[in-house]
Every structure is written in C-alpha cells, then in structure tokens.
## 1
Amino acid sequence: MTSQASRLELGPALAFLLRELVDGPPGAEAYMLNQGDPGLLRSLERVTWTAAAAPGPAGGASIAAHVDHLRYGVSLFNRWVGGERNPFADADWSVAWDRTVRSEEEWQRLREDLGREAHQWIDALETMSGGPPGGAIAAKGMIGSVAHLGYHLGAIRQIDAGARGPRQESR
C-alpha cells in the first residue's frame, strides 16, 4: 500500500462521525452513539416547543438556545467552505444564546434550519480530499465542530429526558 493510499481522509471521516451524531448510527457502525440512537435531529422531534423554550436547569440555556447556537456555528463553517475568508472573525455567539421559540411552527423551523445547515456541512466534509484548506487551524476547527455538536447533544439530553437515546446493550 502506498503512503498516499493509506493516508486518512480527514473530511470524510469527520463527515461520518457528524452524520452519526445528527442522524443516528448507520447500520452496525456506531462510534459516538449507542446502536439504535436516533441522533440529534430525530431526538429533537420528541421535544415539545414549550419544553424547548423553557430555561434549562438552574436558569441555564434553553434547548432552543442550544439548537440555535449549533445552527449558527455550523452556518459559519458552511460560509467558510462556500468561500468566505474568515466568517469566524466577527461572529457574534451571544445572539444564539438569547434564542427562544414561541410556537410549534418556530420550533419546527429552527430544527429544519439546523438540519439543513448540518447536512450541508456534512456534505462539504464528505467531499474534502487531502488535508483541509487552511492547514492545522482549519483541521482543529473541523474536528472541533464534531465534538462541539456532540457536547450540545449531551447537554440537550440532560435538559430533557425525552431526547435521550437508548442505553447501551450488553454484548
């Protein structure tokens, strides 16, 4: 095997892991979630808009705020792969944390917006061959985007037990 053939393609590997978090594990491969986990988007379908709008424990961020924060962050990556030089430079992260929803329609639209942004980022990662454009800093950001989504999926599941995935089956 040549060194070129054995080199890990970072983008497609990250796309696989991100898709698992967003849509649930495909088939028998599960690296981040338990088998049968529905992933973030289908888990959010089980959260009512009133639960999404409610403050988190001890006055923390609502589920809607977590979702909007994720949507915003992923949109920055999509702008970056779309050719914008550095959309992170003037990012205003505080806006998403103030987000709430006031109806089922708003909650559905927010989930759809997150799904659209997440799948666009997954598609972009899948098509990246070789190293990431932008070198080590870009690679760290790409890896961080997967870990960051996983963190917020866990936070959402701590806020609302209805969004939790299945327990690990014994083997």
## 2
Amino acid sequence: MVIDTLRFGMLELPESVLVTLPDGLLGFPECRRFVVLPYDDEMPLCWLQSADDPEVAFLALEPHLFFAEYEVMLSDSDTAALGLAKAEDATLLSLLTVSRDAHAITANLAGPIVVNVITRRGKQIVLDDARYSTKHLVAQVSARLASATRKSQAP
C-alpha cells in the first residue's frame, strides 16, 4: 500500500501496519486509517499519520512513559468495540500539542487513543476524570526538543 503524506512524502508500507479508527478522531472524523511512524531514535515519540488525508499527522507518545500513575478505565462498550479480551492487548497513545518554540509540549490525557494491538483497531476515548485534561505538560520531552531545536539552529 502507498500512502501520500505531506510530511514524509510517499510511503510504501504493508497494509498490516494500518491502525483503523472506525469513529475517526475528535475533529477529524474523516480520518479513519493511520500508520504509526517513529519520530527518531532518541525520543520516545511517534507520528500518527493519516492514510486518508496527506496533511493530517499528529505527534504522539505512550503516556505511561511520562505519567506513571496514568490510568484509563474502559467501559464495557468500549472494550467490546475494540474487541479487547485482556488489558495486555491494548496500547495507549496521547496526542501532543507543541508550541512554536518547542518549550511547551502538552499531552492530551483526557482523550487517549486505545489500540487493540492484535486487531489494530482503535478508538479515541473521552475520559470523564477530573485528574486529566487536554494540556498536561510533558517537561522531559519539551526540554529535549528545545535543546535539539537550538542545536539545529546553531551556525
């Protein structure tokens, strides 16, 4: 399968890497097929690139790497929709927002994407939990990106 992307150009990937979100993402209901691409070798980030719209790509991370106490309780209907038999079959992604200068990167912990790693079917879940918002500061990533940005701008 060939995916046209604005950020990465044409990508030839096996169909088996597609993650399908039948309901799309909030604000992007038409984007239902995605591929997860590594950001680089040094940071635990990834790109969630739409296979349906070349211009849509989100920076994301696995939230437990930065928020050890983070927990997502799925409803029975979400568990059934994802076809999850056990918790180990699920992985989480949190979408990131990056400021212009890369000093403030925030993670959306209120709307994680849950993916069944066996079926590659996913769903964005809106959590009703006051502990989580759409703007949790990811300090470690922010500092590393800001440092990388300064290095790349040095003469």
## 3
Amino acid sequence: MKRILIISGPTGSGESTVTNLLIKKYPIFKRLVTATTRKPRLKEKNQRDYYFFSNKEFCEKIKNGEILEYTYIKNRGVYYGTYFPDLNQKIRDGYNIIVNTDHVGTKFYKKYYQAASIFIKAESLAAIEKRLLARQPKMTQAELQKRLNNAATEIKKEEKFYQYTVINKQGKLPETLKKITAILKKEGYPLKKAKK
C-alpha cells in the first residue's frame, strides 16, 4: 500500500495550496515537515513549518542517519532534507504523507517508498507572474524576473522526473483536486484512515 505522495511544482504553481486543500479534504494525509538550515520567515514555527537546524546540527543528523535524503542549494548556502523521525512517526500513526520536494527527493521516494509523483504547474508563465504579484505587490522587477526565470528552468528540468503533470488553472482549484483524487484512486492510496 502506498503511503507517500510527492507533490511538487515551481513557485506560483499553487503546490502549497493544493497540498493544504488535499489534507483538508482527506484528513488521512499529512504534510512532511522538511528539515532546513535557512532562517525562519515571518510567522514560521519550528516543527510546524520546518525543522530549523544550524548547518552543524544538520550535518550531524546526516551522520547519525536522522536525515537520509537532502539537497544543498549552492547559491543560497542552504540545506533541505527529510527528517526521518517526523516521517516515521506519521507512518506509524497511520497517515499518508505528502512530500513537497525536488527531483533528488522525488527519485529517493520513488525508489524506497514506491511513491507516486505529481508535478503541479500553472497554465503559463504569465499566470505565474500574476500570482506572484498578487501575493507580493511590492516585489521588485528584478526579483520577479528572477523567480520567473527559476520557474521556467524548473519546469524545463524537473517536470520529466514526475509520473503525472497537473495544470492548476487560475480559479479552477476544484478541477485540480478532482484530477489529483483520480490519480490517488488509480495509484491505490487509502483515502480514509483504517479503524483501530
């Protein structure tokens, strides 16, 4: 039985919104809380949004096997990875786990957990631009361009690593969820928690 689902996508694709709505609709799903060495952003809480570690702590956890899969983002000097105590606890508690990861994590979860992988993307780069500006109206042109370039690169380089691509059109979230539910049923994920 499949227990891990990968949902990924570039900035502005709606990956987080889709993940949260899926959890709301099917409470058997929970999001994996990723470990990182980046600093918390506004309102982010340790152990709820991320497990925040220093570089030293992160490297120690790699050594002692608590972090088995990770990525180092060179241009930001930041690590992201799977914190296994969190993953294993959620599996023991009978949940399906949604992992928002990159292609490194995707390969790992496909190999060791037979996870199905879904790449979420907006209908166009223009749609991503609209969403980014709606979220952060004061974003500079340079920052906007950088994010759009990153999104274009991610779509080009990452999409091929995923089994399914779902286009999340503006204002059509129920349709997106319907497509994902169909994938979950096809892949054999339980949508209700087993009674004890």
## 4
Amino acid sequence: MIDPKDFQQKLERHKANVAKVNGLNKDAVFAPLSGAAITLVQVNFDGEGDSGQIQYVGAFAGEKRVEFPAITVTLHSSDWGGEELTTREMPLREAVEELCYGYLQQEYDGWENNDGAFGEFTLDVAERSIALEFNGRFTDYVQSNHTF
C-alpha cells in the first residue's frame, strides 16, 4: 500500500529537484548560445492523447535564421524518487529541447495528456530569459434541462 505522506514527500522533493535542474540547465544552455552570437531561439511544441513533442527549434542571429553550432552541453537531470542529480552530454540544439521539456514538466506536468496543449518558448539570449506561451486544450459542453 502506498503511504500518502510518503508519496507527497517524494513528489515535493522531485518538484524541487526539477526546478533546480532547470536552473542549472538554463545556465548551461545560455552560455554557448551567447558565445555563438545567437540572439533568439524559438521552440514550438504540441501534444494530445498522451503524446507530445517539440515540433520546431530555430536559432536566430538578429533577424537571420542560423544553425546551432556543433557544441556539446552538459545537462543535469533528476529521476523520480532519486536523491542525486545526474549529468549527461548532448548537442546544443538537443539541450535546448531538453530544457524546454524540463520547464513544461515543472509548470504543466502532463501537458500532453487528454486534449493536450500547444505553445511556444522564446529564449532571449541577451536577457537570459525564457518566455513560455502555453495553450491548454480542454473539452467542454453545455447541458440544459427543461421541464414544462
């Protein structure tokens, strides 16, 4: 039997670790973006029915679309129930995707379930900020009953 207090403690610890990982990964991603003279990154995502994915990742230098440099980034991660953070290396473009998935998990865990959601991340490299436009989908209906 699952102890609700134990589960709640694990959930809170996991949420704290996800937020910590996202902060570390944000720093790890912005440094090479800045070094590559990338000024803006746009990331679009969409999902529903228990499946969701990032559909577009674009890097820009001013108004011009540019390729991501062939740079490897070390990202942190946290597993459910784990105490320690782990690291792994990946290309910069993939690291941007992982960072966005991390923020989706932090703010809208389960965003891809049922009717799902879609939206866009905008990474402003000069400001070292990430804006998220999130659009959650839901099914709605109106019921009316009359007795005459």
